[in-house]
Amino acid sequence: MIRSIIKNIHRWIERKQDNADVYYVVEDANWAVTEVAKDVIGYLRHINAKIVDSSRFVDKNAYIHFGSLNVFYDDKRIKNRKGKGVIVTCFHIVDNDPRKNELKNKDKYVEKWHTSCMITKRKLVSLGIPEEKISIIPIGIDSRNYAPCTEQEKRIRRQQLSIEKDAIVLGYFQKDGNGWGEGNSPKLIKGPDVFCNVVERLAQKYKIHVILSGPARGYVKGRLAEAGVPFSHFVFDEAKQVADLYKIIDLYMVTSREEGGPRAILESMASGIPIISTRVGQAPDIIQNGENGILVDIEDEKALESAFDSIVNSKELRKKLIENGFETVKKYDSEKIAALYENLLYHK
């Protein structure tokens, strides 16, 4: 009797849901995965999509799109669909994650795989995922939220933060601490140790001020404070608020060991900020070394330092990187990325 009542309640809830062609499943936490989903869904033209945090009541005739491996691993209902209409996004694979070895067996429950970069596609193939089932669609950018600012505006913003006039302001916005607390334990795949090592050496030659954003940044803050490097830290309610921070900085540095994006690459380009990045995620797919940004090998601290030197000491290089960055970012506007989702993932 009780089971029958519960079953009827579930059916009622399912009927009450707004019908959709695609149910995009995201994690509870405010990860970049959710921001990617919002960007894409906001620009879909011919597909009715809905963001949900569970596949529990998803219409079996609709696509179910798992926005990350985490929500896909945890789902117990994909077996019932027998691979029909199941899409899984995998932005990056952590090498020491034992769950990656499950992917080959779970592939029979998946109709299509999606990733943002060639690096992750190669990893998926090496783990037994058929190449023909994988689509590469990069993480794009909603260009309405990002734009360069004038030197006068930048100067005023820095004065408000009491940043010294002759300081070189370096941006570093990725969450790089474990958990959602202080973040004193570093998330090493994001390379906070590499960043701090490089900045500590740069601070011996230049007057550096670092701009941080997001939660769990305790490790970096502690290292910078110990080294005597000034920094400012901001935590926002919405990810798009970070756009204002690009109006303060002179350049941006990615020191990660593993990424799916990072979003900061295109955000920097759209904001007129030179970008330095390790060869992670979609960085090698987007950055043409020395043309629209600078690429360095993972953990190559000397190369990161040299790239910083080159940008700071060459107006010509800065100008080239900025101008070419503006041209590059036009290809990755969210509206164009959404069209790729429609054509490659959501077509019947």
What does this molecule look like?
A six-stranded parallel beta sheet has the order 2-1-3-4-5-6, sandwiched between helices. Strands 9-8-7-10-11-12 form a six-stranded parallel beta sheet, sandwiched between helices. The protein starts with a helix and ends with a helix. With 348 residues, it is α/β, with parallel strands linked by helices. It has two domains: 2-140 and 334-345, Rossmann fold; 143-331, Glycogen Phosphorylase B (Rossmann fold), CATH 3.40.50. Helix 10 links the parallel strand 11 and strand 12 (294-296). It has helices at residues 2-16, 32-41, 69-74, 103-106, 118-126, 151-160, 192-202, 218-227, 264-270, 283-286, 301-313, 315-329, 334-345; strands at 22-25, 49-52, 63-66, 86-89, 112-115, 134-136, 168-172, 208-213, 231-234, 251-254, 275-278, 294-296. The protein has 13 helices and twelve strands. The radius of gyration is 22 Å and the shape is globular. Mean pLDDT is 92; it is low at 8-16.
**Percent strand:** 5-15%
What's the order of the H and E elements?
HEHEEHEHEHEHEHEHEEHEHEHHH
Give the termini separation: 40 Å
Number of helices: 13
Shape: globular
CATH class of the largest domain: Alpha Beta
Based on DSSP secondary structure assignment, what is the total number of beta strands? 12
Q: Structural class from helices and strands?
A: alpha/beta
Radius of gyration, CA atoms, in whole angstroms: 22 Å
> Describe the biggest sheet?
6 strands, parallel
Could you name the ranges where pLDDT drops below 50 across 5 or more consecutive residues?
8-16
Give the mean pLDDT. Answer: 92
Number of domains: 2
Strand order of the largest sheet: 2-1-3-4-5-6
Residues in helices, as a percent range: 25-40%
User: Within the CATH hierarchy, at the fold level, what is the topology of the largest domain?
Assistant: Rossmann fold
